[in-house]
Write a sequence for this structure.
C-alpha cells in the first residue's frame, strides 16, 4: 500500500496523479489538517511533526511513503530516511530543473511557502541546476488556507493569487514552478494572473516515480482502495474529496496524539 502524506488536502494532487496512472494500487492518505498550514512554523517543529506522521504511516504497513508536501520534505525528508532506512521515501523537490530547461528569458519563479524557500532542498536544486538562470522565490502566504477552505474560484481568490504572482512576472519570470501541492488546485487563477507563462506542476512526475519505486514492494493483490485519514474533521475532508472530484474512499479521523 502506497502512503501519501501532506499537511492538508494539497497532497491529493499527487494522489490523483498516481490514481490516474494506476487505478489498481492501494493508497492510504494522511492529512494533518489539525496542524495545517505548516508553512510559517519553525523548521524544528515541522520536522518533529513530519517524523511523527511518517512513523504512524509505517506502523500501518504502508510503503513507499510519499511526502506530498514541499514544506515537510524540505524540513524532514533527510531525517525520515535516516530514521527508516528500510522504507523508501518519495519527496517533493521544487521543479527547478525542468523550469530551467523551459525558460526562454533566463528567469524562473517558484511559488512556495516560507519554510520551503528556506529549506535545504530548495537551495540544493537551485545551486545544482540554475547556474545561468535567475530563480525568484515567492512566499505565497495564505494560498494553502484558500484551498483548505475550498475557495478555489472567485474574485477574492483571483486577487490573492495575483498578488503573489505579480512580483514574479515583474521580475521577468516566464516559467512558474508550483512549489506546494496545494497550488495546482489554484491553477486557473494562476493562469489568469500569468496568461503567457509556463506553469510546472511536479505531481505527474512524482506519481510516475512513486509507481516505479512501489512496483517491487507489492506483496499482496492490490484492490484499488483509497483510505483517507485526517487529524481534523473527517466530515470536512469528505466534503473536500467530493468538491475536488478526488477518488472516493473511506474517510476517518485520527487523533494527533496517535501520530506522536
Amino acid at each position: 500500500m502506497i502512503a501519501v502524506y501532506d499537511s492538508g488536502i494539497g497532497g491529493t494532487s499527487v494522489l490523483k496523479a498516481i490514481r490516474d496512472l494506476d487505478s489498481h494500487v492501494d493508497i492510504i492518505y494522511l492529512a494533518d489538517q489539525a496542524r495545517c498550514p505548516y508553512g510559517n512554523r519553525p523548521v524544528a517543529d515541522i520536522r518533529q511533526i513530519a517524523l511523527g506522521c511518517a512513523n504512524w504511516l509505517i506502523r500501518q504497513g504502508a510503503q513507499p511513503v510519499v511526502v506530498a508536501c514541499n514544506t515537510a520534505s524540505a524540513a524532514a525528508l533527510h531525517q525520515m530516511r535516516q530514521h527508516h532506512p528500510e522504507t523508501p521515501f518519495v519527496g517533493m523537490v521544487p521543479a527547478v530543473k525542468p523550469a530551467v530547461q523551459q525558460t526562454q528569458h533566463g528567469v524562473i519563479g517558484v511559488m512556495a511557502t516560507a519554510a520551503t524557500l528556506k529549506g535545504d532542498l530548495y537551495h540544493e536544486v537551485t545551486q545544482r541546476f540554475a547556474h545561468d538562470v535567475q530563480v525568484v522565490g515567492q512566499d505565497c502566504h495564505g494560498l494553502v488556507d484558500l484551498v483548505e477552505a475550498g475557495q478555489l474560484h472567485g474574485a477574492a481568490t483571483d486577487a490573492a493569487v495575483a498578488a503573489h504572482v505579480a512580483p514574479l512576472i515583474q521580475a521577468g519570470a516566464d516559467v512558474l514552478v508550483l512549489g506546494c501541492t496545494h497550488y495546482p488546485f489554484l491553477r486557473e487563477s494562476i493562469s489568469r494572473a500569468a496568461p503567457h507563462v509556463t506553469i510546472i506542476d511536479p505531481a505527474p512526475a512524482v506519481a510516475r516515480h512513486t509507481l516505479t519505486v512501489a512496483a517491487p514492494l507489492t506483496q499482496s493483490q492490490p484492490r484499488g482502495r483509497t483510505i483517507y485519514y485526517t487529524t481534523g474533521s473527517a466530515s470536512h475532508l469528505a466534503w473536500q474529496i467530493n468538491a475536488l472530484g478526488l477518488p472516493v474512499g473511506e474517510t476517518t479521523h485520527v487523533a494527533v496524539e496517535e501520530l506522536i
